[in-house]
Specification:
11 helices; two-stranded antiparallel ribbon; eight-stranded parallel beta sheet; globular; binds zinc ion; alpha/beta
Length: 360
């Protein structure tokens, strides 16, 4: 038996408590809420996982995967928004975009950051559902520190560590945020592990939605293999424009990206088989990052997949059997009543896989 996988934690996540998401121009209830991480922590503490406090890390670890202009925008956006009076007139309390530099608008002209505060958001955000409130940056920064602290544990010899990151991160590209994500914690972790343990590092993303952020960040970089199993975007699912089977990387990254698509309604059989295929594909890497979304579970309000808790346990077992130094980063999962059990089952499977496969 390996020791229980440590849970890395930052209280800063609670500072991101969005009041709404703007969807189709309508204020809809936010679903990416503090109760998510608190439910996961409660389940993991009950299962005996020790809690490790996240420690502060330098911005250089973020700049390894993100444009400094995006980081500066996120850090200052709320202060700029309030200084411009936008919470009072027109009455929007959180930072949201309204106008986007669509490539077909600009042609060959490169976009510049707009002068107007209310227009600037559209330069960095790719959707309207990812509001920035007073504590969003602190929470996102705490999430990155959580992932980086998990990397420290694994680089120091722990077989695996779980980073309870909130808000999630896997939709964020080098220079643009969205999909309820602000900093790409899985990509930040992969870059940190590559620095410490060498390349290639593999990211396996089991969230119900495509891990478009890591795909984009490492698309021409063979040093980080990126794989994602997700519901088929061609059947109407976010991120709609990306996540197709033909996206395989380019340049030095040719062949280093894999997308495995599932039909809506898919359950344990095809989902676990896809995770096992990505695990085989990741074998031989120096380290593994698991982007653990549990929104593929039956009953999750954000996806049509039908995976069970046993399915997540089997996925954990397949990934643990690789025997790689492993950082698990929390992504989606939006049913507070079930996400704790789903994460606990995945980590139990991972520990089983490690003790049976990786370290005899
Ligand atoms: Zn998701």
């Amino acid at each position: 038996m390996t020791a229980a996988i440590p849970l890395v934690w930052s209280d800063a996540h609670r500072r991101h408590a969005p009041t709404a998401e703007i969807w189709l121009g309508v204020r809809t209830p936010a679903v990416e809420l503090p109760v998510r991480a608190d439910a996961i922590r409660a389940a993991l503490e009950a299962a005996g996982h020790p809690v490790v406090a996240a420690t502060a890390h330098d911005d250089a670890a973020l700049e390894a995967v993100h444009d400094p202009a995006l980081l500066a925008f996120l850090a200052g956006a709320y202060a700029d928004w309030t200084a411009a009076g936008l919470p009072d007139d027109p009455g929007q309390p959180e930072v949201v975009p309204y106008f986007f530099p669509n490539p077909a608008l600009l042609g060959t002209i490169a976009p510049a950051v707009p002068a107007a505060t209310w227009a600037r958001t559209g330069f960095f955000a790719f959707d309207t559902m990812t509001p920035i409130g007073p504590g969003t940056w602190a929470a996102a920064r705490g999430g990155a520190d959580t992932a980086l602290t998990a990397c420290d544990l694994v680089a120091g010899g722990a077989p695996a560590a779980y980073a309870c990151c909130r808000p999630p991160g896997h939709h964020v590209t080098r220079a643009a945020y969205g999909g309820a994500c602000y900093l790409n914690n899985a990509a930040i972790a992969a870059a940190a592990l590559r620095d410490r343990l060498g390349d290639p590092v593999a990211i396996v993303d089991v969230d119900a939605h495509h891990g478009n952020g890591a795909q984009s960040i490492f698309y021409a970089d063979g040093g980080v293999r990126t794989g994602s199993v997700h519901v088929d975007p061609a059947q109407g699912w976010f991120p709609h424009f990306l996540g197709f089977a033909g996206e395989a990387g380019e340049g030095d990254g040719t062949g280093a990206n894999r997308n495995l698509l599932l039909a809506p309604g898919s359950g344990d059989g095809p989902w676990v088989a896809a995770v096992e295929e990505l695990a085989r594909w990741a074998s031989g890497a120096r380290a593994l990052v698991v982007a653990l979304g549990v929104d593929a579970a039956a009953g999750d309000p954000e996806s049509p997949l039908q995976v069970t808790q046993d399915g997540y346990r089997a996925a954990g077992r397949a990934l643990g059997a690789l025997g790689l130094p492993t950082v698990v980063v929390q992504e989606g999962g939006y049913d507070p009543g079930t996400i704790g059990g789903l994460v606990a089952a995945t980590l139990a499977g991972l520990a089983d896989g490690i003790s049976n496969g990786g370290h005899g």
